Amino acid sequence: MAQAKKSGPSVSDWWLPGQQEKRTPGVYAIQDSGNVTATLHRALGSAGGSIFDLPDYELVHGVSFGKAITLVNNRVRKARMGMSTDQAEIEIAPRYAIEGLLLGRDELKLTRAKVRIQRQDEWTRPRTFRVDHDPDKRFIKAVTYTEFPEVTSEIPNGRVTVADASSYRSNEEGVTLKTGTEFHFHFDTPVDLHSFVAEELRGLQVLMTLATGVRCGVERFRLTNSEWQIEGAEREEDRWCDVRMWAPTLTPSRRRGTFLFPYSSMDWTSQAPLFFGLSEAWKYVIEQWALLLDDRFVWPVARFATAASAVEALDRILHSGEKYEADMDLSVRILETLKSAGVNAKDRKKVKGALSRPKEISLAERMRRLSDYLPGVMDDVVREKQWTDRVARLRHVVSHGLESSDGFAQDVRPLQCGTEVLLHLLESVFLFHVGFTGEQVKAMQARNSNHRRREIVDECFELLPSIEANTAQK
């Protein structure tokens, strides 16, 4: 649904839940990006006559061409109001638009969902229809359908299945065959909509983004709840709602038709839960990494700094239980020496405080710890044994604006090299934590990104700050 073509504004009525008698006319429009906007011709509820009195509405109910609509988490984008009349033009942008039912706050839950992610069919590669033609390729002799093998994975409170979504339609004009797959979720008890989006939907987007190398959003999202009490719902289809939400504009894949890991290489049953778990636990890292995959994010300094920040954040997450223990014996000896040397008590107290503070682990050490998850995985990209120290030194030069950083305005190759090294490390550790073995990770990257990265690193690595030169610039 997210990538449905933009539709012209349609006449609609809007009101706050329980206040249908105070409804206001307006329009409903679907944007190119999949999300919607609603325009109100009067303020809802008890909002005053000033644009400064307009709240952000949690829920708005409406109807457009006979279809019930629930707008969730609405933000007022712009408003124009008359001075002596209640007429207005108020544009609101919901986070979700649920088409099909008027739902209350406590009803924003689901027990089943059908989801498609952008580029999903390129990844799963369903081959459900085979068309046989006559020898001259003029007529269709036969169409053979082979069902896509569905695979299910157990997740907390339910299960998720990669399901066949192929369709066959015929009419007077001809026959339409469409291959496709969907992700089907079944939950034992109702799940909050916001939690589902934050965990399960985010997990699917992370999976597809990592596999394709470009940001992927939700293409279609339908949901239902077995506990909804719906009057007049005679068919099962009447219990399902379409959800419209924002999705990124599709861009060409950097991997040119290949995938870091195709669906056929995954053990969906065991690996799917790992994506859902990491998508929330590694949220900060993933958002930085997704930014690096955005073709619009082209500034070399910013890209390198973001990659370094993502690697640091990932190491902190994986070692969050670490506790710093000060060397008390060393501290006592230093303080006794200072006392013997005549240093006053006030200064000795400052030194004692400094010695007891946690020591920040260097970026170089963080990179070494991360690479230890997959011994040898970095050797396929960078041959230099001191790569961690030199990349860390580059980050020091960049982040502190040292004199030697002036040259980056003319020659960005060191930054591009450092970014590729950090991305390779980030990608490798992520693949390891979603269930791929070290050998699988090496094979995947050799098949896709290693050649390009190796060329960049081989050409540019010697441009990184040397370790010998580091001391002179401190």
Which descriptors apply to this entry?
single chain; 6-stranded antiparallel beta barrel; globular; alpha+beta; two-stranded antiparallel sheet; 4 domains; 474 residues
Q: Would you summarize the structure shown here?
A:
This protein is α+β, with helices and mostly antiparallel strands.
Description:
With 474 residues, this protein is α+β, with helices and mostly antiparallel strands. The chain has four domains: 95 residues, no CATH class; 171 residues, no CATH class; 136 residues, no CATH class; 34 residues. Helices cover 35% and strands 24% of the residues. The radius of gyration is 28 Å and the shape is globular. The N terminus and C terminus are likely disordered.
List the helices and strands and how they pair.
Elements: E1 10-15, E2 24-30, E3 36-40, E4 59-64, E5 67-81, E6 88-99, E7 109-117, H1 120-124, E8 129-133, E9 140-145, E10 151-155, E11 158-164, E12 167-171, E13 174-178, E14 181-192, H2 193-212, E15 218-224, E16 241-244, H3 268-281, H4 283-292, H5 300-318, H6 328-340, H7 345-356, H8 363-371, H9 387-400, H10 413-433, H11 438-447, H12 450-460, H13 467-473
Antiparallel strand pairs: 1-2, 1-4, 2-3, 3-6, 4-5, 5-6, 6-16, 7-14, 7-15, 8-9, 10-11, 11-14, 12-13, 15-16
Helix pairs in contact: 2-3, 4-5, 5-8, 5-9, 5-10, 6-7, 8-9, 10-12
Order of helices and strands: EEEEEEEHEEEEEEEHEEHHHHHHHHHHH
Q: Major sheet: size, sense and barrel closure?
A: 6 strands, antiparallel, barrel
* Helix proportion: 25-40%
**Helix tally?**
13
The order of strands across the largest sheet is 1-2-3-6-5-4
Low-confidence region ranges: 1-6, 469-474
Radius of gyration: 28 Å
Portion of residues in beta strands equals 15-25%
Mean pLDDT, all residues: 85
Straight-line N-to-C gap: 55 Å
Number of strands: 16
Total number of distinct structural domains: 4
The rough form would be described as globular
Please identify the structural class as seen in this structure.
alpha+beta
